[in-house]
Amino acid sequence: MTANNMRDDWWKQAVVYQVYPRSFKDANGDGLGDIAGVTSKIDYLKQLGVDAIWLSPFYPSDLADGGYDVIDYRNVDPRLGTMDDFDEMVKVAHEAGIKVIVDIVPNHTADKHVLFQEALAAGPGSPERDRYIFRDGRGEHGELPPNDWISLFGGPAWQQVPDGQWYLHIFAKEQPDVNWKNPDIHEEFKKTLRFWSDHGTDGFRIDVAHGLAKDLESVPLDQMDPLAVQHGLCHDFTSPLWDRKEVHDIYREWREVFNEYNPPRFAVGEAWVVPEHQHLYASTDELGQVFNFEFAEANWDVDAMRSAILAGLKSAEETHGSTTTWVMSNHDVPRHVSRYGLPQVPASSHHQLAKDWLLRDGTSYFEDRELGTKRARAAIMMELGLPGSTYIYQGEELGLPEVADIPWDRLEDPTPFFTRERFIEKGRDGCRVPLPWDSSDVPAPAEWNAGFGTGASFGFSPATKADGTASADPHLPQPLWYKQYAADVEDADDASMLNLYRTTLSLRATLLTATGDTADCAAVDAGHDVIAYTRPSADGRRFASYTNFGSAPVELPAGEIVLASGDVADGQLPQDTTVWILLD
Ligand code: GLC
């Protein structure tokens, strides 16, 4: 157990590793990652040096949205294992000193969830139907949806049921939004929080945390902003769907549940809100921490990165008792090695550029992977030296680029579904491809664009199932160039991304014992193109991190260079490089 993890407030300065379970490690050979697969890699995660793992949903699901369509919140998808497997994984993780965080999806259930099935069966006006957001339609016979809202995944946000009513779904139609004005929903989710806490879970990641409270009554539905679903960022709390003030009542209620446990359970909210509202979710009377997505949204640009850092630090200062979070990648955004290797355009258009690049199978712009990798190395060191918690997405420690050219007919993500014929959106599968663990089962050379592997899985699945038959292919195809990123290849290479992550994490744990408090972090003015800051180091000296975004080398201050993301010679810091220094 790391010294950090022995503290009750371990989460304030934690490194949390996000596991996307269906693509992490397959233990039984069905081509889908599973819980036993996670257990088998706890040693790897311990060696990496993470404090906690967060598992994206592993609950029973029809996978209409990668598991975020939950059929039963208090069970394990039988394809991924059993509750016994879960308990075993928690035990092994805890023995390794690693905390476990599970994902709670409270904005919507799956349409197959028993509460939604009861709502359908009970009919209009029933107490069961009141647990979701059902409305009558417009038009003479109610044949039109209550309004023209478009769901975030495309297509209408309302779905009609056989008795004529319509239900709201902000995401896929298999994800009906629940009605948080109904007390049964409150009880249901508190039961779920206690269930996983009783199974040893240390904390929760709260999906779409800013969406639960809705006001669909004050204004007639057909007079509401037609783009209310898309208009998520609202400064004045007036959106009918997002970031409403009442959402905080829910989290204050949950805090009482978290505090029933010793140590109190931790939570981090996924809230895509304006930066000045983030701290409301992160209040220690509520969730305790919130994702700051500014890094995930910034391209490799000194101004964008600087303002991302300042926004994160400011949001933490506004929250008494909480810390900030840093996230470069997750299961919803293209991998940052690729983002940083694409042409760097203003932040406002970078998102669109990445989408366009994906749409054209990675051919519309040149992806400079070498440059992207160099920048990603500099970025993780810049990030890990900062106060607060860092969230690492599985495979980023291997420096995996995005798989941009998954064939359309192999995509699983619902976001391309509505657009396949029109080819306007390729979706999020390129960062969800099963991880490459072992290069030895794939004989092909590691060439770019050599196509996808067949009959081998880079050790993602075992060669055979328990009955001796061959394992199924991984559920998303792995490109042959994955070979050079396989964990065994990187393990053997001192200069690999994996070994940089390991060293950075271990130095962070020993050099920076701070609590994640922003007050001990001071910006250093080293010129416009350099992001530099100092913090106290554990040995009483001052720790400093310098990142050079500019083309001219930068003179470093006197001190002991403890780590560099690239070549540093003669006290000069080259472009796209970070160093950690203990100052003289
Ligand atoms: C969150 C998840 C995303 C999912 C959505 C709906 O944004 O991160 O993957 O599609 O919620 O649950």
SSE map:
Blueprint: E1 15-19, H1 35-40, H2 42-48, E2 52-55, H3 83-95, E3 99-104, H4 114-122, E4 134-135, E5 158-160, E6 166-168, H5 183-198, E7 203-206, H6 247-258, E8 266-269, H7 275-282, E9 288-290, H8 294-297, H9 302-318, E10 325-327, H10 336-341, H11 347-359, H12 369-384, E11 389-393, H13 487-491, H14 497-511, E12 522-524, E13 530-536, E14 542-548, E15 554-555, E16 559-564, E17 572-573, E18 577-583
Parallel strand pairs: 1-2, 1-11, 2-3, 3-7, 7-8, 8-9, 10-11
Antiparallel strand pairs: 4-6, 5-6, 12-13, 13-14, 14-18, 15-17, 16-18
Key phrases:
584 residues, alpha/beta, TIM Barrel, Oligo-1,6-glucosidase, domain 2, Immunoglobulin-like, 3 domains, eight-stranded parallel beta sheet, five-stranded antiparallel beta sheet, globular, binds alpha-D-glucopyranose, GH13_cat_dom, alpha-amylase activity, O16G_dom_2
Commentary on this structure:
There is one protein chain. The chain has helices at residues 35-40, 42-48, 83-95, 114-122, 183-198, 247-258, 275-282, 294-297, 302-318, 336-341, 347-359, 369-384, 487-491, 497-511, and strands spanning 15-19, 52-55, 99-104, 134-135, 158-160, 166-168, 203-206, 266-269, 288-290, 325-327, 389-393, 522-524, 530-536, 542-548, 554-555, 559-564, 572-573, 577-583. With 584 residues, it is α/β, with parallel strands linked by helices. α6 links the parallel β7 (203-206) and β8. The radius of gyration is 24 Å and the shape is globular. It starts with 14 loop residues before the first strand and ends with a strand. Bound molecules: alpha-D-glucopyranose. Alpha-D-glucopyranose is lined by residues 65-66, 68, 105, 171, 207-208, 270, 331-332.
